[in-house]
């Protein structure tokens, strides 16, 4: 997601939007976010005490989230793929394309929280818990502004 910051100019290139059908783009985007959800799931369970803390597992989930921050979101945010364009197929609000700077800000906060998580994930539950809480807050903050409640 960090590459998002560097790649927004690409959104202006119309050819990119035509590389795949809008629905293909939305499905890929949802897949990307499902990866975040998958990695976050066990971290949240550990933080809540629903799952035993496991330093190696926590480090792996954190590292996977970090790896995904290097994935450029530019193609996933092709114009013409909001929930106004594709009703029932995506929860991405038109606000994303109207306020790309706002999306960038949320993405920056998210990336910082992932980095923070990586610095403490193997250091024990007391360190993991606040880092996961902080990270979850950055997920929610972006969803509040840019994701519809339902499909
Ligand atoms: C920069 C904004 C942003 C951040 C940060 C973000 N998300 Fe999302 N997320 C979205 C948007 C937009 C969608 C809707 C995508 C769509 O439906 O096309 C979404 C969708 C999802 C979905 C739904 C997939 C589905 O089946 O509907 C999950 C799960 C998810 N995000 C998890 C997370 C988690 C976990 C984090 C933090 C670790 C996170 N997201 C961080 C913007 C964000």
From TrEMBL:
Gene Ontology molecular function, alphabetical: electron transfer activity; heme binding; iron ion binding
Record InterPro entries: Cyt_c/b562, Cyt_c_II, Cyt_c_prime
Pfam family, one: Cytochrom_C_2
Binding site for heme c: 139, 142-143
Range of residues in the leader sequence: 1-19
Gene Ontology annotations of biological process type: electron transport chain
Keyword field: Electron transport, Heme, Iron, Metal-binding, Signal, Transport
Domain of life assignment: Bacteria
Modification after translation (UniProt): Binds 1 heme group per subunit.
Cellular component terms per the entry's GO annotation: periplasmic space
Identification of the protein by name: Cytochrome c556
Organism this protein belongs to: Afifella marina DSM 2698
Lineage of producing organism: Bacteria, Pseudomonadati, Pseudomonadota, Alphaproteobacteria, Hyphomicrobiales
